[in-house]
C-alpha cells in the first residue's frame, strides 16, 4: 500500500505538464458547454483548482466581453474561453479575449483559420485545438496549437465517430510535442489516472460538472443528469444518407423521437417534390435550433436537447464544484494508493 502523501505527489507529477500549461492546481479542464459554462460554473471550477472554460457559443463580442468581466469578478484564477470556429465574428471574439487578458483560447467546432490562431498567439494567449486524428493533430501543432484536446464519441454534445479509448491509443504515444488533454465519457478519477499514465497531460470533463451547485442549469436539467444512465445518452440518428445529420449525444426524450418523425416527414416532402434537396436539408438542420437553451435554461427536458456524455451514469447528486473536483482527485489518489509500494 502506497502512502497517501506519496500517491498525491505521484498524481501531482503526472499532472505537472498539464497543470503548468493551464496555470492551475489540477490538470482538469471544465469542458465548455453552451449555456451551461457561464461565469458561475467557470469561476467555481477555477476556484476549485481546475480550469474553467467559458462557452462563447453564439454570443456576440459585447456579450462575451461582459461574460469574461463577470467571471473575472468571481475568480482571480486563470480560465479559458471556447470559441466556435464558424462564428462569423471569430476574429473580433479573439480580440475581446485578448483585451480582457484571457490566458487560453480554445477553438472548437472545426479547424481554426490561420489568422485566428495567429492573432490569439500574437496577443499573448495560449491556443488549444481539438483534433479528431493524429495527422490533423500534427498539422494543428505546426499551425501553432499550443495544446490539443482529443474528444471521444462518448462525450456529450457534438461528437466524432471514434471513441476516446481508440483516439488515445492512436494519438498519445505519437504526439509528444504539446500537452494533450483527453475528453469524453470520463466520470471518475481512476480513468483520469489511466489516461495520464498513457501520456495525457490532463483531462476535460463536461457532464460531471453539470450538477455543480454553482451551475445555473435548470433544476430539471440537473435532475435529468442525476437520473440518466450511460445507455440513455445516445447520438442523434440520421434516417437517410442523402440528408446528413451531425451526431449530437444527448439524453433520449420526446424531442429525439420527434426528430425521427420530422426527418421522415421531410423526406416524404422531398420525395414528392414538395421540397428541394437544399430546403429539406435546412429543414432538418433547423429542427434543433434553440433546443439546448430550452433544456438548460427553461428546463424543457422533454422537448429540448439534453446534451450529455455517456459519463452521465456517474452523475449521482448535486454538489459544489470543489467537492466534485476533490472527489475525482481522491479517486485517482486512492487508485495509486491501492498499488503495492
Ligand atoms: C450540454 C453540453 C454542451 C456542450 N457544448 C459545447 C460547446 O459549446 N463547445 C465545445 O467545444 N464543446 C461542448 N461540449 C463538449 C464538452 O466541452 C466536453 O468536451 C464534453 O462534455 C466531454 O465529455 P463528457 O461530457 O463525457 O465529460 C458540450 C457538452 C455538453 C454535455
Automatic annotation (TrEMBL):
TM ranges: none
GO function term, MF aspect, one: nitronate monooxygenase activity
Domain of life: Bacteria
Signal peptide region: none
The entry's keywords: Flavoprotein, FMN, Oxidoreductase
Record keyword Oxidoreductase present: yes
Database matches in SUPFAM superfamilies: Inosine monophosphate dehydrogenase (IMPDH)
CDD domains for the chain: NPD_like
PANTHER family linked: 2-NITROPROPANE DIOXYGENASE, 2-NITROPROPANE DIOXYGENASE-LIKE PROTEIN
Protein name (record): Enoyl-[acyl-carrier protein] reductase II
Organism: Humitalea rosea
Amino acid at each position: 500500500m502506497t502512502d497517501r502523501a506519496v500517491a498525491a505527489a505521484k498524481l501531482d507529477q503526472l499532472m505537472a505538464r498539464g497543470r503548468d500549461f493551464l496555470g492551475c492546481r489540477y490538470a482538469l479542464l471544465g469542458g465548455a458547454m453552451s449555456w451551461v459554462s457561464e461565469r458561475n460554473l467557470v469561476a467555481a471550477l477555477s476556484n476549485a483548482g481546475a480550469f474553467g472554460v467559458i462557452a462563447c457559443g453564439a454570443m456576440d463580442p459585447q456579450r462575451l466581453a461582459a461574460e469574461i468581466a463577470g467571471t473575472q469578478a468571481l475568480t482571480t484564477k486563470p480560465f479559458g474561453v471556447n470559441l466556435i470556429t464558424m462564428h462569423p465574428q471569430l476574429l473580433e471574439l479573439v480580440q475581446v479575449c485578448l483585451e480582457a487578458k484571457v490566458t487560453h483560447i480554445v477553438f472548437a467546432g472545426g479547424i481554426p483559420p490561420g489568422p485566428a490562431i495567429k492573432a490569439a498567439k500574437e496577443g499573448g494567449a495560449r491556443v488549444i485545438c481539438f483534433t479528431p486524428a493524429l495527422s490533423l493533430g500534427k498539422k494543428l501543432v505546426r499551425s501553432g496549437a499550443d495544446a490539443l484536446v482529443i474528444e471521444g464519441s462518448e462525450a456529450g454534445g457534438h461528437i466524432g465517430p471514434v471513441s476516446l479509448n481508440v483516439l488515445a491509443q492512436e494519438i498519445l504515444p505519437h504526439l509528444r510535442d504539446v500537452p494533450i488533454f483527453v475528453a469524453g465519457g470520463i466520470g471518475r478519477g481512476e480513468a483520469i489516472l489511466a489516461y495520464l499514465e498513457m501520456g495525457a497531460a490532463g483531462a476535460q470533463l463536461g457532464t460531471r460538472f453539470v450538477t455543480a451547485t454553482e451551475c445555473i442549469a435548470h433544476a430539471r436539467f440537473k435532475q435529468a443528469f442525476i437520473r440518466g444512465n450511460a445507455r440513455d445518452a445516445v447520438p442523434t440518428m440520421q434516417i437517410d444518407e442523402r440528408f446528413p445529420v451531425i451526431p449530437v449525444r444527448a439524453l433520449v426524450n420526446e424531442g429525439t423521437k420527434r426528430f425521427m418523425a420530422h426527418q421522415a416527414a421531410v423526406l416524404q416532402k422531398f420525395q414528392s417534390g414538395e421540397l428541394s434537396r437544399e430546403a429539406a436539408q435546412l429543414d432538418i438542420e433547423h429542427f434543433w435550433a434553440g433546443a439546448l437553451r430550452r433544456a438548460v435554461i427553461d428546463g424543457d427536458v422533454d422537448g429540448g436537447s439534453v446534451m450529455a456524455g455517456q459519463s452521465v451514469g456517474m452523475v449521482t447528486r448535486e454538489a459544489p464544484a470543489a467537492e466534485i473536483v476533490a472527489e475525482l482527485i481522491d479517486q485517482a489518489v486512492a487508485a495509486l494508493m491501492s498499488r503495492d509500494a
